[in-house]
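Shape is hard to put into words, and the shape of a protein is harder than most. The fold becomes a row of whole numbers, each drawn from a learned catalogue of backbone shapes. The outcome of that step, for a single protein, is printed below.
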Amino acid sequence: MIGVPDGDSLVVRADSRQYRVRLEGIDCPEFGQAFGKEAKQFTRATAWGKSVLITSHGTDQYDRVVGYVRLPDGRVLNAALIRSGLAWWYRRHSQDREFERLEAEARAEHRGLWSRQNPQPPWRWRREHPRQPTR
């Protein structure tokens, strides 16, 4: 793993190529949201410089590999982010019932973003805060 653009994305090197990876089934807060920076820091602290195993289910519209990231200790990074309260289970793109259970547990224990009264999901936040074109 060689880069962490945000909480739910990585850049990895394999076979002398770089790949952008989008963590499947989760959505982390954006940088303008509460816990957006913490999600990125968690991902960096957990995976930086480590050899990871990616189970991919294809690519997305931005040509990122979409998949689960298994860490050297056996944990799945996607699940660890939800368990820590730093990501939503992305129901629209995932049927993973383990993610559903982990999110319910994090909510019940008020971990991370669930410590806030009404955290706004990042997919709604992005609709309300469209990116401005760069010049």
